[in-house]
Write a structure and sequence with these properties.
The protein is an alpha/beta fold. The protein has two domains: 33-156 and 293-369, Response regulator (Rossmann fold, 3-Layer(aba) Sandwich), CATH 3.40.50; 159-286 and 372-398, Rossmann fold. The protein has helices spanning 7-26, 50-67, 90-102, 115-128, 158-169, 184-197, 218-228, 248-252, 296-309, 315-333, 340-347; strands spanning 37-43, 73-74, 77-85, 108-110, 131-134, 151-153, 175-181, 203-210, 235-240, 261-265, 283-286, 351-354, 357-361, 368-369, 372-378, 387-394. The strands form four sheets. Strands 2-3-1-4-5-6 form a six-stranded mixed β-sheet, with helices on both faces. A four-stranded parallel β-sheet has the order 8-7-9-10, with helices on both faces. A three-stranded antiparallel β-sheet has the order 11-15-16. Helix 2 packs parallel to helix 10 (315-333), helix 3 packs parallel to helix 4 (115-128) and helix 5 (158-169) crosses helix 6 (184-197). The longest helix has 20 residues, at 7-26. Residues 1-32 form the signal peptide.
Length: 406
């Protein structure tokens, strides 16, 4: 797709705008002054999820750029992005968001990375009466029991992960154990997965939770092996893990195959998917992989990211771009107004294009409905990671995503 800017056209447009302004002044009517629109990216720039944060910010900036044709303006109003580091600490995230709204007069905030931090930030958006666009924190409770009307989310939620992975793994006679992080992301993920498996014929027989900083998974793995070894039929260990010290490689080294146990998991960043090379044929579902979606937005993202950074865009780059494009689409609908009620009215039910194709903000909980991708891992000797080869795109209408805030 050619996104080259027509500078001659823009000069002509500027001249026309100046002429219109002069005409208004001559008539005694002052044109509305352009104002900066401050967008605060409040996210965990440092800590265990730093890689996710970097991708998210890159994607956000590229989304704003793409959606404004490189001008970084909407209706003459300049978009100014400020950054605040939550350090992955709920109290720091809460304070940083309050500072962004109160001291920096941010019209919209984006973030954070961590679900635990997000849950601490939700009441701040309600207190200040301003939009928090959650990207990429995943826990269902963010748009569920802890939700308020100022919260929108472009990132997928635990139920979208769960429903998509249940499609991939949920077959009659299958027995599944889960290993997840012991905080909101992991526990909400398992709860949603258990619900999504109902009616598939598969059964979740054991749940194991481990601290996010766990390094030695021997004890957890042994409990899982003991729970599954006596089960009949096909057996899976399904892993729900974010950040460093991902347990997949370590558990694979413990040879679960000897007990007939297969490892399964969802998509992840490219660095984490290096462990997937040891799991050819593994099935699961992913939010994004750069080679799967076929649309003009993703074509631009892949081309520009490789040109600028020498690598393909990653898991959370796409999410950040979706958030940036949502902001611009909402501001266009309001005519550049940053009034919160105008933004809510514009965003409820809003459809817009992203690297994944169409997203829609569901009116009931402001969760972005979107495609997910059922994959099977193949090994490409030219790539460092296991490649999630598309089995089936699960479109919005293919998934019944529960509403949790009612």
């Amino acid at each position: 797709m050619n996104r080259a800017f027509n500078w001659a056209g823009r000069r002509a447009g500027l001249a026309a705008s100046m002429a219109a302004g002069i005409a208004l002044l001559a008539a005694g009517i002052a044109p509305a002054a352009a104002e900066d629109i401050t967008i605060a990216h409040v996210y965990g720039k440092t800590g265990a999820l730093e890689a996710y944060a970097k991708q998210s910010h890159t994607g956000l900036m590229m989304g704003l750029e793409y959606a404004t044709d490189g001008s970084m303006e909407v209706d003459g109003n300049k978009l100014v992005v400020i950054e605040k580091d939550t350090q992955l600490k709920p109290d720091v995230g809460r304070a940083a968001l309050a500072e962004a709204y109160g001291d920096d007069d941010a019209a919209i905030a984006v973030g954070p990375v961590s679900s635990g931090v997000a849950l601490a930030m939700l009441p701040v958006a309600e207190e200040y009466g301003k939009i928090l666009l959650v990207e990429p924190a995943v826990a269902d409770s963010i748009t569920g029991e802890n939700w308020n009307r100022y919260i929108f989310r472009t990132g997928r939620n635990s139920s979208q992960d769960a429903v998509a992975n249940a499609v991939a793994l949920g077959k009659p006679g299958v027995k599944i154990a889960t290993l997840a992080q012991d905080y909101a992301f992991g526990r909400d993920g398992v709860a949603a997965f258990k619900q999504a498996l109902k009616g598939t014929g598969a059964e979740l027989v054991f749940e194991e939770y481990a601290p996010t900083d766990t390094q030695d998974f021997t004890a957890s793995a042994q409990r899982i092996f003991d729970a599954l070894k006596g089960e009949k039929g096909r057996k899976f260990l399904f892993v729900i893990w974010a950040g460093g010290n991902n347990p997949i490689g370590k558990i694979k080294a413990m040879d679960p195959d000897r007990l007939g146990i297969e490892i399964a998991t969802g998509g992840n960043i490219l660095a984490a998917m290096k462990a997937y090379k040891a799991l050819p044929g593994m099935e699961g579902a992913t939010y994004y992989y750069y080679d799967i979606p076929k649309n003009p937005v993703n074509d631009w993202l892949v081309t520009e990211h490789e040109k600028r950074f020498g690598t393909p865009p990653d898991f959370f780059t796409a999410g950040g771009m979706a958030a940036g494009m949502a902001i611009v689409e909402a501001l266009k609908k309001t005519g550049g107004s940053t009034d919160t009620e105008d933004l809510i009215a514009a965003m409820e039910g809003m459809e817009w294009q992203t690297p994944k194709g169409k997203m829609v903000f569901r009116k009931e909980d402001h969760q972005a409905l979107q495609s997910m991708y059922h994959f099977k891992i193949k090994v490409d000797p030219n790539l460092e990671w296991g490649v999630p080869e598309l089995v089936r795109e699960l479109k919005i209408d293919d998934m019944d995503i529960p509403i949790h805030n009612q």
